[in-house]
Design goal:
about 55% helix, seven-stranded mixed sheet, alpha/beta, two-stranded antiparallel sheet
């Protein structure tokens, strides 16, 4: 980070620069600090325009977000420039545009680290050279739980740092009849205090002005430590010259009480809020889990029902007009029947096109999850699920990575850094891949639609329930064998108040997650499609040219047929299906694209044979299962759920827990997947 030695020279607005790397080495660095659920990430996205990247801090495995924050817009060379997100100017006397590097440090309740994330936050604030410390620290504090948030502020104020306190949740405080006086709070804390609402982008200009003003100041002296006994506080009871820890805590709490008394007042005292009354129901021991399951069932039911017509339209577009246009285009330039035509039509359009039909489904799912997250319910879901997990012997805080893992296993594994002990992080990293990520969701929905029709949503929901069961069983098995002495820790989480979701925040969160899905489709999936197409075009019989062999006689088909007998007990032992499992090692979304490629290159000639993807899949499952397609479909979904995750997840595991445990996890997942899928089919065919 930078030291301000050149009087903060004006820096041009870096609208077109690499925002994920910050504004440059000569720009001031602003650090966002705060406890989880204080709105820190929302504020960061609002200030940077969300044009950011995540990256590991050098020398650590902890990811930190970096972005550019323009402190005002005056002089920006482009109207509506995304990096200049604050409105207005920083003042008539100073019309310059200042670009700063904004760093979103990991959430921390205090500077006494309990996890790798909190260790990094402390290190970057206190344990580095002065020139590497942030130029301004913006500390977020809950306005309606001010005393709770001020402990972190008190610790930061004990060090020579420029500090601005940003009060969030001000609307909640007002609803609870808590009066706040930012001027009085500022005077009592000895720092600037600004009220903001990052969800509605209110108060951002005032925050920018406060930071800009702070940058002009000299680094302040630390807050003077006081105590009821100055001699004990400053000298120490043992005469070593160190501050007595008890006296220090006493001083911090006394300071917090003074600040709260000076700048806030509860009009009618404490009374149960709307959130308190709702929480009595949704977090209750019995009805809480039932409500959680009901909410998730509604989410999946809505997702499949609303997305179905949109998926049908996109499927018609890719297999109909787009394919016809491509064929006509190649014919017009004399490349009809060429290898290039085969790659574009049977590779890209059939593979990637089929996957893109699931974009509406992913968008709807992300919207619903964003609404639950923004409303505050997902924090309650974590609390409810945590109670069940700890009852079954799993670490309490470990459920948070599982919640993240249901979105994507990669950040779920990264989230294990919140755990205090290495053994807990290893155990949780081994179990996160059993959570049903959104990549698997696309395949679940496809299978559910083909085999379960109007009950597709329930079938998909069942996979998520089975996912939780596998996590629990796997955790108990590992706890009883490898980690018998693992100590449980309770879940410590702030429950944010229930709020009305905002359109802007819901849309931005949805787009960020959908963009990640699309980037995967345009990256790994395209490469996978190309490799699969090439293997499907390589003949294994003499005298057959490249691209003119049937899929069954290609290198792809022959290799798939070699491993198919192993899957006979599962009910889905056709080479067209087992081959998708191999492709799924790269990315689970590629299961659909490889299926589509296989059937597109092997269309039946007779008009009375089904050529549509769903009909072909159903026909093959029916044949391979001996007339029991439903149990076979369930077995396939269970195998997909439990077997080895994608290469990105494996890379994340190697980074977090090393090769030895990663390879152990791969073996464990394959065994789990095979045993469970065989059991599902063999039992299911007797019942269905």
């Amino acid at each position: 980070m930078t030291q301000l030695t050149q009087s903060l020279t004006s820096i041009p607005c870096a609208c077109h620069g690499g925002q994920g790397d910050g504004a440059g080495p000569d720009s001031p660095t602003i650090a966002l600090v705060g406890a989880p659920n204080t709105g820190k990430s929302t504020l960061f996205n609002s200030l940077t325009g969300q044009r950011v990247t995540m990256g590991n801090w050098p020398g650590t495995t902890v990811e930190v977000s970096r972005g550019i924050w323009c402190l005002n817009r005056t002089g920006c060379d482009q109207v509506g420039c995304e990096c200049c997100v604050t409105s207005g100017s920083a003042g008539e006397s100073d019309p310059e545009v200042w670009t700063t590097t904004l760093v979103d440090l990991p959430g921390a309740y205090s500077l006494d680290p309990q996890s790798p994330d909190e260790e990094l936050t402390r290190a970057l604030l206190l344990d580095v050279a002065d020139e590497e410390k942030p130029d301004v620290v913006v500390v977020l504090a809950d306005a309606y739980r001010l005393a709770h948030s001020l402990y972190l502020v008190s610790q930061i104020r004990e060090h020579p740092l420029r500090v601005v306190v940003a009060l969030t949740m001000v609307d909640i405080a007002q609803a609870r009849e808590i009066e706040l006086d930012t001027r009085a709070l500022s005077k009592a804390m000895g720092v600037q205090v600004v009220a903001i609402d990052p969800r509605r982008r209110q108060g951002l200009e005032k925050l920018a002005q406060a930071v800009q003003k702070e940058l002009h100041k000299a680094v302040p002296a630390p807050r003077r430590i006081r105590s009821l006994s100055e001699s004990i506080a400053l000298i120490g009871a043992d005469g070593t010259g160190e501050i007595d820890s008890f006296a220090l805590e006493e001083d911090r709490f006394a300071w917090i009480q003074e600040v709260v008394s000076a700048g806030s007042r509860s009009v009618n005292g404490y009374k149960p809020s709307f959130s308190d009354r709702v929480d009595r129901v949704v977090t209750a021991p019995v009805i809480g889990p039932l409500i959680f399951l009901a909410v998730m069932w509604v989410v999946f039911q809505l997702t499949t029902a609303v997305a179905a017509p949109l998926q049908d339209f996109l499927d018609w577009f890719f297999t109909g007009p787009l394919t016809d246009w491509a064929l006509a285009g190649f014919a017009a330039i004399g490349l009809g029947g060429s290898v290039l035509e085969g790659f574009v039509v049977n590779g890209l359009i059939a593979g990637v096109g089929t996957l893109l039909t699931f974009v509406p489904l992913m968008a709807i799912m992300f919207v619903l999850l964003a609404l639950l997250e923004d409303s505050g319910y997902l924090a309650r879901a974590a609390l409810v699920a945590d109670r069940l997990m700890r009852m079954l012997g799993l670490p309490g805080k470990a459920f948070l990575p599982f919640i993240v893992g249901f979105g994507c296993n990669v950040p779920g594994i990264a989230a294990t850094r919140i755990l205090s002990h290495a053994s807990q992080r290893v155990l949780t990293s081994l179990l996160v891949p059993f959570t049903a990520c959104t990549a698997r969701l696309t395949v679940f929905v496809m299978i559910g639609t083909i085999f379960f029709g109007p009950f597709a949503g329930t079938a998909v929901f069942a996979m998520y329930v089975i996912s939780i069961v596998i996590v629990v069983l796997g955790g108990l098995l590992l706890r009883k064998t490898l980690w018998r002495d693992l100590v449980d820790e309770p879940l410590i989480i702030d429950l944010p108040p229930y709020q009305r979701p905002t359109l802007r925040l819901t849309a931005s969160v949805t787009w960020l997650r959908l963009k990640g899905f699309l980037q995967t489709a345009s990256g790994i999936i395209v490469v996978t499609v190309a490799i699969v197409w090439a293997l499907q075009s390589i003949p294994t019989q003499p005298g057959v040219a490249f691209g003119e062999t049937s899929v069954g006689d290609s290198a792809y088909g022959v290799a798939a047929k070699a491993i198919t007998p192993v899957f006979e007990p599962t009910g889905f032992a056709t080479w067209e299906t087992t081959s998708t499992m191999v492709v799924g090692f790269v990315a689970k979304e590629a299961v659909i694209s490889s299926w589509a490629q296989t059937y597109a290159l092997d269309e039946p000639e007779a008009d009375d044979q089904p050529g549509e993807l769903g009909a072909r899949v159903y026909s093959d499952f029916n044949e391979s299962s001996g007339g029991h397609p439903i149990p076979a479909a369930l077995a396939f979904m269970v195998f997909l759920l439990a077997y080895t995750p994608c290469v990105a997840t494996l890379a994340a595991q190697v980074r977090e827990i090393g090769w030895k445990w990663t390879l152990f996890g791969v073996a464990m997942q394959l065994v789990f997947a095979y045993v469970l899928s065989v059991g599902v089919f063999q039992i299911g065919r007797l019942l269905i």
